[in-house]
Design brief:
It contains no helices and eleven strands. The protein is mainly beta and 119 residues long.
């Protein structure tokens, strides 16, 4: 059974930092591109960042570039999202995704973790 379990969300003031984690079970983690998405109330889910499987090449949405860092530890089957200089507009539910479609299999999603940035 495949599981992606996010953690690390919470309440933080503007300018603060959070580190999200997503632990994967039931997949060969090292083969998957991994992504973080977010969905704010009343808005569509949007891509935040992704990291490739082996080389670890990263890509970011313009809105988070320079503030967020995605990384992975294949030995721990875990992907991280370090979020610095948080803004109120970063408030959303954050989801991790295992990009199975690149391997010709289905994608997998975590259940999401809430990040709220407020003073």
């Amino acid at each position: 059974q495949v599981q992606l379990v996010e953690s690390g969300g919470g309440l933080v003031q503007p300018g603060g930092s959070l580190r999200l984690s997503c632990a994967a079970r039931g997949i060969t983690f090292s083969m998957y591109y991994m992504s973080w998405y977010r969905q704010a109330p009343g808005k569509e889910r949007e891509s935040v960042a992704y990291i490739t499987s082996v080389s670890g090449i990263t890509n970011y949405a313009d809105s988070v570039k320079g503030r967020f860092t995605i990384s992975r530890d294949n030995a721990k089957s875990t992907v991280y999202l370090q979020m610095n200089s948080l803004k109120s507009e970063d408030t959303a539910v954050y989801y991790c995704k295992a990009e199975g479609s690149r391997l010709g299999v289905r994608d997998y999603w975590g259940q999401g973790t809430q990040v709220t940035v407020t003073s």
